[in-house]
């Protein structure tokens, strides 16, 4: 469908049929709904939960020797 939309966007707007315009509008509405859904997820400031298995781990427990 994206190739079809690209071809329609390259045409002269005055030469488009009503069906062509409807397909462009539906594509933009779909993109808008995805954009809005992404914004809802991106706006969350709630901290992510740390799994219980990782809470007690630190470098001393793991016996890691990291040299930078």
| Number of DSSP E strands | 0
Helix content: 55-70%
The biggest sheet amounts to: none
- Count, helices: 4
Please indicate the percent range of residues in DSSP E strands (runs of 2 or more): under 5%
List the helices and strands and how they pair.
Blueprint: H1 2-10, H2 18-42, H3 52-55, H4 59-62
Walkthrough of the structure:
- The protein has helices at about 1-10, 20-40, 50-55, 60.
- By secondary structure, the protein is mostly helical.
- It has one domain (about 1-60).
- It is elongated and about 70 Å long.
- The protein has four helices and no strands.
- The chain starts with a helix and ends in a 6-residue tail after the last helix.
Can you summarize this structure?
The chain is mostly helical. The protein has four helices and no strands.
Relevant terms:
mainly alpha; 68 residues
